[in-house]
Design goal:
The protein is mainly alpha-helical and 216 residues long. Helices cover 75% and strands 0% of the residues. Helix 4 packs antiparallel against helix 7 (151-166).
Length: 216
């Protein structure tokens, strides 16, 4: 019985912490990007090279976002279990879609970011020979097209935010900020817009996270 209570307490504390850490890690990941104020979408190889080549903070930022994936999964599953009233269907489908989106986020960062950090270790002459081949990454050739499904992460979060509002777990203003923040993450790699989105998410999520931490 005592062991069950301890396990339940760990689960509740982990869920509360995930609410706080999830948006914060995303924000840190976006803020660490070089040329944050450029407002430039990523469409060409030259734009990609300028962003990541000899920019260790770019790789660190993406590594932080990669490590956010398990935290996001804890959040989605915890919210799915929490919503059992008017928001139950939003919690369930939001959780299913959101966990799938978290998986795609891991694929995205693994294929498009961690691999680029390996390329960045090459001697300059070797790297310059590689540059033309980066076109396949920019254009999402082969099976890389599945990273476009990352929008599932935002859709799942929005559905669960609606459920949280319906069950009055969070205030309406918090839900609106979370939803707007998630919508802003759906953009063509403009980091400033993503940073604003993550900031709004922090404002919406973190007070709720501390509330959950306090009562559990």
């Amino acid at each position: 019985m005592i062991k069950n209570d301890v396990i339940e307490n760990i689960k509740q504390k982990s869920f509360a912490l995930s609410i706080i850490i999830y948006p914060l890690m995303l924000l840190i990941g976006f803020v660490t990007h070089p040329n944050l104020l450029a407002m430039e979408p990523l469409f060409t190889v030259d734009q990609l090279v300028v962003r990541f080549h000899n920019n260790p903070m770019y790789h660190i930022g993406h590594l932080i976002v990669t490590f956010t994936v398990p935290v996001i999964i804890i959040y989605f599953i915890g919210t799915m279990n929490l919503l059992q009233g008017k928001g139950k269907k939003f919690g369930f489908w939001g959780g299913i879609i959101g966990v799938f989106g978290a998986f795609i986020l891991a694929v995205d960062k693994g294929a498009l970011c961690l691999v680029l950090s390996a390329f960045d270790t090459l001697p300059e002459k070797e790297f310059q020979k590689l540059v033309p081949y980066l076109e396949v990454i920019v254009n999402k050739e082969g099976y890389l097209f599945i990273v476009w499904l990352i929008f599932a992460l935002m859709i799942g979060g929005i559905l669960q935010a609606i459920g949280l509002i319906k069950e009055k777990v969070i205030a309406k203003w918090q839900g609106v900020l979370i939803i707007v923040g998630l919508l802003l993450l759906i953009n063509p790699d403009i980091e400033l817009i993503s940073t604003v989105g993550a900031t709004l998410m922090c404002i919406g999520y973190i007070p709720w996270g501390f509330k959950e931490l306090k009562y559990n």
